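Table S4 entry, Flavin reductase like domain-containing protein.
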Amino acid sequence: MSDFRPVPLEYATRLTNHGPTIMVTSRSKDGKQRNVMTAAWSTLVEFDPPRLVVVINKGAYTRSLLEESGVFAVCVPSVSFIDQVYAAGSVSGREMDKFLRFNIETVQSPELDIPVIEKGCVAWLECRLLPEPGPQERYDTCFGEVVSAAADARIFRDGLWNFTKENRALHTIHHLGGGNFVVSGEMIHAREI
């Protein structure tokens, strides 16, 4: 049984606001092709409704699939999944099914029927591609509106991350380049002054 639970959209932006490395999943319009890629550049651009932007090269296979289907998902991997994260970001999915090649299991998202990753990830957001003709045509940016989200309740509860020593295998990762990552670390809480 999965530890993932739905996340209210009002908290969806918190799933990626700390800048973790993400995995973007996509599918063709007919659902016969799918792909996964790793991305280090994503950010939130709106709260209500939650919207984000992901940098995906215009020539990438993932980009062609999400532009065809109009949907994609952002999955937030944990440190326990680092080898698959690096592998999925190092090769193209045009010639292979990276899910099969790197043993990445998926489930279908509830709203848009996108493959999302739960085993090895701690959160996912399913997104509808927003038509942004200017920036999307000129730059490697893809704007998405989050339509649903879920997270692993062992580390994300009540709209907040809960990074502890006991759940370190579930901590998110941050890419530094060249296959090097850092792990989300010790949480501290600000006091009121």
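The chain has a mean pLDDT of 92.
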